């Protein structure tokens, strides 16, 4: 017996999302699996995705080496490239494809003598202003790398800051126009689209699309968008009611006495807390699914527990199933109640075992 707290990851849903992502555009699909596959467990996720995608993208070297050590042989893109010269040897040995986004990386690469020439992704800053070369510098750096013996091929890339904001398209349109202007006349493959762009910006879909969130079945948009409808949520965060209290009116629940009972209430304790990745900033009223029905969070989240209103669910007792997020209660909705985003909630999942479900 152990604490009833776990996550279910539906690998069949994951594969269906990957097939859907592939069907949206003929470009190659790089599955973004940084941060332990957005909390879903990177190795089972990569093994399930491998037949359906053209490669993987992770943030940094150690994440990529873990995949290679597990026998994953698909192309791997390092989204942050390398931070120091001593990573280059491992990058070459593991056949990884680093992003190059600043002059220091160009210098390190051109000073090195890798055993084999590298395929690099040269990042253009089209308006996010986080990583990347300025448009005026781009063609010159591209030519320098194309001519370098250390380089086998250059993929032109950029990243969108606001592709999920369909109500404010000007920023993404400007980034697209900037990319096309700065890369005009430079041959070879290019890559722009993240999940929202693959779902809603056909003009941004190029030789390589880089999808993360949508593979996990979550829409990146805050409003309902038809192209996101077929996505199937992959993770279900599960627990059970482990204690039930009948409380009179006028008493407080939990740390800081944030919630005070307005009337006599029946309150259930759930065996999940912020140390498991449930957001501590979830407000009173955040939806929680208990025995298949929606109820609400009451009181602050504890490290190992949270409390829910069972007043209108008199049949619910100890052992009743609880879903913190899943298919009928989206992690995106919970995130809104916690002033967060689904990316953060999913990638913060920890301490609970993951049970993998698959129909084959
Ligand atoms: C994380 C990341 C992605 C994937 O973004 P999603 O919105 O999850 O699809 C794509 N490109 C880069 C550069 C990233 O850092």
Summarize the structure in words.
27% of the residues lie in helices and 24% in strands. With 360 residues, it is an alpha/beta fold. Helix 1 (11-24) packs across helix 3 (42-49) and helix 7 packs across helix 8 (170-182). The relative contact order is 0.14. Bound molecules: pyridoxal-5'-phosphate. Pyridoxal-5'-phosphate binds at residues 32, 34, 79, 159, 194-195, 210-213, 220.
Helical content class: 25-40%
Enumerate the spans where pLDDT stays under 50 for 5 or more consecutive residues. none
Class based on secondary structure composition and strand pairing: alpha/beta
> Ligands in the structure?
pyridoxal-5'-phosphate
Order of helices and strands: EHEHHEHEHEHEHEHEHEEEEEEEEEHHE
The main β sheet shows up as:
8 strands, mixed
Rounded radius of gyration (Å) = 23 Å
Number of strands: 18
- The DSSP helix count reads 11
- Report the span from N to C terminus: 28 Å
Averaging pLDDT over every residue, what do you get? Answer: 97
Which band does the percent of strand residues land in? 15-25%
> Could you say which overall geometry the principal axes of the C-alpha atoms support?
elongated
Q: Can you lay out the helices and strands and say which pair or pack?
A:
Blueprint: E1 5-10, H1 11-24, E2 28-32, H2 34-38, H3 42-49, E3 55-58, H4 61-69, E4 76-78, H5 88-93, E5 96-100, H6 103-111, E6 118-123, H7 135-147, E7 151-157, H8 170-182, E8 190-191, H9 195-200, E9 208-211, E10 235-247, E11 252-253, E12 259-260, E13 265-270, E14 287-290, E15 293-296, E16 306-309, E17 321-325, H10 331-337, H11 342-347, E18 354-357
Parallel strand pairs: 1-18, 2-3, 2-9, 3-4, 4-5, 5-6, 6-7, 7-8
Antiparallel strand pairs: 1-10, 10-13, 10-17, 11-12, 13-16, 14-15, 14-17
Helix pairs in contact: 1-3, 7-8
Pyridoxal-5'-phosphate is lined by residues 32, 34, 79, 159, 194-195, 210-213, 220.
